[in-house]
Amino acid sequence: DGGITQSPKYLFRKEGQNVTLSCEQNLNHDAMYWYRQDPGQGLRLIYYSQIVNDFQKGDIAEGYSVSREKKESFPLTVTSAQKNPTAFYLCASSIQGAEQYFGPGTRLTVT
Amino acid sequence: GIQVEQSPPDLILQEGANSTLRCNFSDSVNNLQWFHQNPWGQLINLFYIPSGTKQNGRLSATTVATERYSLLYISSSQTTDSGVYFCAVGGNYGQNFVFGPGTRLSVLP
Q1: Residue B102: closest C-alpha in chain A
Q2: Per the CB < 8 Å rule, is A44 touching B99?
Q3: By C-alpha distance, which of A34, A44, A38 is closest to B4?
Q4: What is the pLDDT of residue B93?
Q5: Greatest CA span in chain A, whole angstroms?
Q6: What does the buried/exposed string (b/e) look like for A73-107 if buried means 16 or more CB atoms within 10 Å of the residue's CB?
């Protein structure tokens, strides 16, 4: 089955801890993206990567970090520097300049 | 950067009614998509439509790239159509995808 997987579906952390969200795709897409969605709001781009070992900041990169060591994987780390980390996080992938496909998302709650 | 607007922000319909959702964007783009976000948060691809017209069952979409807008038509709406509809533009090499704020649709039985 081709697609994008994100794990875990729900994640709970204490304030001050770093947490890493997983995103894996087997669609052979070059480009991968991380978005954040707050309740009742649209999606905002955190980071994107158009090729292995390269990534670019999106509109709200502060407090987040990423890596792209393999084409299939694009993990996102929410660091303790992110002031309001509680949100719904969505990962997507695409062929360059073409249709995006989304994973099911991870709901992160930090208390 | 590109600005994306969607209208209306909220829409309430009776089951069986038709509706038109609009997406305006501020610059030329080579990539436009419509999504439906279901109550569990999953974004479902509806159309990849940088230009022209497409139809899929009760849904159809038209993008007029030269005038920088796209329309999503929903006919004979059903309660399962409820949710938030987003358009997203951009995404070419070196260009971010930008999402609009969404239209929240509620279809009443």
Answers
A1: A42
A2: yes
A3: A44
A4: 59
A5: 38
A6: ebbbebeeebeebbbbbbbbbbeebbbbbbbbbbe
What's the average model confidence in pLDDT over A28-32? 93
The pLDDT of residue A105 is above 90: yes
* Cβ neighbours of residue B82 closer than 8 Å, sequence gap 6 or more: B39, B105, B106, B107
Nearest to B32 by CA among B76, B64, B79: B64
Q: Spell out which residues of chain A touch residue B33, defining contact as CB-CB under 8 Å.
A: 99-100
Look at the block and give the residue holding tokens 């996102």.
A76
Mean pLDDT of B19-30: 93
Report yes or no: A58 at the B interface, CB cutoff 8 Å.
yes
For B100, the closest of A35, A42, A100 (CB atoms) is A42
Q: How close, in Å, is residue A48 to chain B by CA atoms?
A: 8
Asked if A88 lies within 8 A of B30 by C-beta distance, the reply is no
Asked whether the CA dihedral B69, B70, B76, B78 is positive or negative, the reply is: negative
Of B40, B41, B97, the CB nearest to A100: B97
pLDDT value, residue B86: 97
- Alpha helices by DSSP H, listed for chain B, are none
